Amino acid sequence: MAAARRLDLPVVDLASAADLRAAAKSIRQACVEYGFFYVINHGIEGALLERVLAESRKFFEQPMEEKMALRKNSSHRGYTAPYSEKVDDSPNSRGDSKETFYIGLTGDDNLQNNGNQWPSEERFPSWKKTMMSYHANALATGKKILSLIALSLDLDAEFFEKNGAFEIPTAVLRLLHYAAVGDVNASEDGNIGAAAHSDYGMLTLLATDGTPGLQICRDKDRHPQLWEDVHHIDGSLIVNIGDLLERWTNCVFRSTLHRVVPVGKDRYSVAFFIDPSPNLVIQCMESCCNETYPPRFPPIKSGDYLEERLSSTYKLATV
C-alpha cells in the first residue's frame, strides 16, 4: 500500500472561551475544508481516558466465548466480533477486522437507553463506573463543541439545546480494538481494520492510544483516492462531522471518508457518537439555504435515518 501523506488538521482550544467567535471561525473552516479537527483543553482528564483504555484492553483480551456472551442486542448495545460490520460491498471484502463494544446512556426514565450490557462485576468491578464517567464527560464536551458549531453556522449558541436535539440524545460510547496483523499491506487484499466510510450521525469524538492507522480522504469522488494520515496529538480529541450534520447543513459542512489501516500492532481507541433525539425532524438549517441554494434533502426523523444506516451496515456483513 502506498504511503499516505501526513495531514495537519486545525487545532481548536476549548479553553479559549474569551474569544468564542474566533474558535467558531476556526471550526467552520475545519468543517468546510476537512470535516475533521482536533480539540485540546476539552475537559476529559487524561487519567480517565487511561482507565477506559485499560478496561477496554482487559475486556478484548478475553476468550471469544466470554465476549460473545454480551453480543450486540437489538438496541445496538454490547459486543460485535471481527467481520460483523461491513461498509465495503466489494466481493473481496469480508468486512471490518475490528471488534467493538457499544455503551449508551443509562436512566430508568428513558427506555431508549436501557439496553446496555455489562461485564461481570466480579471480573470487572470498575467497568461500569469508568465507562459512565467517560460517557458523561464526553457528552458535556460534545455539547460545548456543538455550541461552537452553531455559532459557526450563524445560529444561536444554544441552537441544538433549544430545538430539542438533547431532549433524548442518542449518545453512544464505542470501544474499539484493531488487532495487530503481520502484513501492513493486508488492506490491499480486503482485510482492513475499518473500511472507508463516513460516520452516519451528527458528531464523533475520538480518543486513541497513540497508535497510527487513521486516514482520511477529503475528496470522495477522486479516483484514485488520496489518503492522508491523521497523526496523534497528546491530550487531544479528534472530532469529525457525520452524514446527518452534513445533511442538516445542506452540505455546507462535509462528512469525510476515513478508514483505519493495519500498522503491524494492536490499536485501541474510544469513539463517542452524539446524535439528536430520535424524533427530531432534521431539515435544512435556515442559515444554510436560500433561493439560489435551496434545501437538497427532504426532512427526516433522526432516528429513522440512523436506523436505516445502521441496518445496512450489518446486512452487508458475512457473519
TrEMBL record:
MF (Gene Ontology): dioxygenase activity; metal ion binding
Record-linked Pfam families: 2OG-FeII_Oxy, DIOX_N
Entry superkingdom: Eukaryota
Composition-biased stretches (Basic and acidic residues): 85-99
Family, per entry: Belongs to the iron/ascorbate-dependent oxidoreductase family.
Sequence ranges assigned to domain Fe2OG dioxygenase in this UniProt record: 169-276
Name the UniProt record assigns to this protein: Fe2OG dioxygenase domain-containing protein
Keywords for this protein: Iron, Metal-binding, Oxidoreductase
Keyword set includes Iron: yes
Disordered: region residues: 71-99
Organism encoding this protein: Urochloa decumbens
